[in-house]
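FORM 12-B: Structure-to-Sequence Request
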C-alpha cells in the first residue's frame, strides 16, 4: 500500500471515529429526563433573587456559565455571593464570554480567581493572550446557566447585569423568562457545563431528586456536537402542532426553513402568533426582522410587538403540553456561531403557566396590521432590505 493510500485510509478511519464520538455526545446531550420539578421565572424580579438564593444555599458546587456577567451593581451582588461560597469551602466554577462581558471590569474576575474560584474566559479577544484565536472570534458562549450541587439548575434568557434588575432597584426591568429545574435534568446541565469549562468535573455527591415527574429535554449547541439541535427541535415541534403556536423572541430573523414550517402550520389551521420587541437593544436586528414582516403576514402569521419596554425573552408554547425556554434567538448567529441552551418541557401544567404569561404579554402588545404595514415609506423598506442582506453579521 502506498503512503498516500495509507494516509487516505487513516483519514477515513479518523473521520468515522470522530463522527460516532460526536453522535454519542449528541445523544447524551439531548436525552430526555422525566424526574424533574420545573418552576417558571418571569423577569429579573423573580430570577435574580432565585439565583442568589440558590448560590447561597450551595453545599458542594456552584457552576455558572454566563454570556453577560457585568461588574455593575447586579453583577457585583453575584460576585460577592460567589466569593462567600468559595470562602466557605464550596467549589465555584465560572465561565463568562469575553465579548458578552466586554464592559465588565477585569478586576472583578481577578478577585474571584484570587479567592479560589475557577474562572474561565470563553474565547478571549486579546491577541496577546495565549488562548486567543482569530478563528474563534465569531463563536461566542451565549448560554445562561447556573447549576447548584448537581440537583438544581436555573436557565433562560437572563444575564447578570443591571438591565435585568427591577426598575425600583435602579435597573432597567427588561422582560425575560427562565426556569428552575430540580431533578435529573440538572445532571445533564452539569455535564453540559463541563463540556466547555476546561476543568475536570470532580467527584459528584449523588443528589436526591424528590418526586418530580416533568419531562425535560436539554437542547444545546456546543463545541463538539451538532450545532442545529435547538433549531431542529423548534422545527419538529412546529411540524407536530395541531392547534396553536406562540413564539416569543427578541431577535426574530427566521430562515426560510422556519418561515415555511410556520406557513405550513397555518395551512393546517394552526393559529401562529409571534411576539417581538417594539423597543430593542439591537436596532439593526430589528430592522432585519421587520423586512420579513410582509412575507410572514402574507402567510397568515400574526405578528405582535411588545410595548412594555425591552423584550429579551426566548420562549415558545405549542398546543397544550410542549414549551421551551432558553437563550436561542431565531437568527443566524444562534444557529451557526453561538453556544446556546434551551430546555424543552413536556407538561400541561408548565405549558398552561407559560401560556398565561405570554397571553398577558400579547394583551400589552401592538398587533401588526397587514394593510397598514404595506403603507410604510419606500425609504424605510430599502433600509430594512439593506440591513437584512447583512443579517449573517448581526
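FORM 12-B RESPONSE
SEQUENCE OUT:
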Amino acid at each position: 500500500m502506498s503512503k498516500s493510500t495509507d494516509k487516505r485510509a487513516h483519514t477515513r478511519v479518523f473521520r468515522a471515529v470522530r463522527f460516532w464520538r460526536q453522535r454519542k455526545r449528541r445523544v447524551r446531550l439531548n436525552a430526555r429526563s422525566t424526574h424533574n420539578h420545573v418552576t417558571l421565572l418571569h423577569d429579573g424580579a423573580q430570577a435574580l433573587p432565585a439565583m442568589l438564593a440558590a448560590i447561597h444555599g450551595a453545599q458542594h458546587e456552584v457552576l455558572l456559565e454566563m454570556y453577560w456577567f457585568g461588574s455593575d451593581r447586579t453583577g457585583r451582588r453575584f460576585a460577592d455571593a460567589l466569593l462567600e461560597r468559595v470562602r466557605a469551602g464550596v467549589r465555584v466554577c465560572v465561565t463568562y464570554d469575553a465579548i458578552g462581558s466586554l464592559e465588565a471590569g477585569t478586576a472583578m474576575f481577578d478577585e474571584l480567581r484570587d479567592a479560589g474560584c475557577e474562572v474561565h474566559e470563553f474565547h478571549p479577544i486579546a491577541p496577546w493572550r495565549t488562548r486567543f484565536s482569530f478563528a474563534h472570534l465569531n463563536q461566542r458562549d451565549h448560554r445562561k446557566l447556573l447549576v447548584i450541587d448537581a440537583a438544581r439548575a436555573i436557565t433562560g434568557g437572563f444575564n447578570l447585569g443591571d438591565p435585568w434588575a427591577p426598575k425600583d432597584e435602579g435597573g432597567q426591568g427588561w422582560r425575560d423568562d427562565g426556569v428552575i429545574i430540580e431533578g435529573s435534568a440538572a445532571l445533564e446541565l452539569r455535564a453540559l457545563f463541563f463540556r466547555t469549562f476546561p476543568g475536570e468535573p470532580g467527584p459528584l455527591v449523588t443528589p436526591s431528586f424528590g418526586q418530580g415527574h416533568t419531562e425535560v429535554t436539554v437542547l444545546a449547541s456546543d463545541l463538539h456536537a451538532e450545532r442545529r439541535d435547538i433549531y431542529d427541535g423548534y422545527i419538529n415541534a412546529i411540524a407536530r402542532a395541531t392547534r396553536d403556536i406562540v413564539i416569543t423572541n427578541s431577535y426574530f430573523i427566521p430562515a426560510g426553513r422556519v418561515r415555511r414550517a410556520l406557513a405550513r402550520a397555518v395551512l393546517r389551521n394552526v393559529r401562529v402568533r409571534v411576539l417581538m420587541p417594539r423597543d430593542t437593544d439591537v436596532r439593526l436586528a430589528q430592522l432585519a426582522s421587520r423586512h420579513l414582516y410582509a412575507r410572514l403576514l402574507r402567510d397568515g402569521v400574526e405578528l405582535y410587538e411588545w410595548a412594555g419596554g425591552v423584550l429579551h425573552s426566548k420562549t415558545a408554547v405549542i398546543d397544550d403540553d410542549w414549551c421551551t425556554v432558553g437563550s436561542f434567538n431565531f437568527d443566524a448567529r444562534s444557529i451557526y456561531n453561538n453556544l446556546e441552551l434551551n430546555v424543552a418541557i413536556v407538561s400541561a401544567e408548565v405549558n398552561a403557566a407559560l401560556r398565561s404569561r405570554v397571553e398577558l404579554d400579547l394583551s400589552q402588545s401592538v398587533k401588526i396590521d397587514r394593510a397598514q404595514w404595506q403603507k410604510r415609506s419606500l425609504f424605510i423598506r430599502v433600509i430594512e432590505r439593506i440591513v437584512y442582506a447583512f443579517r449573517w453579521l448581526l
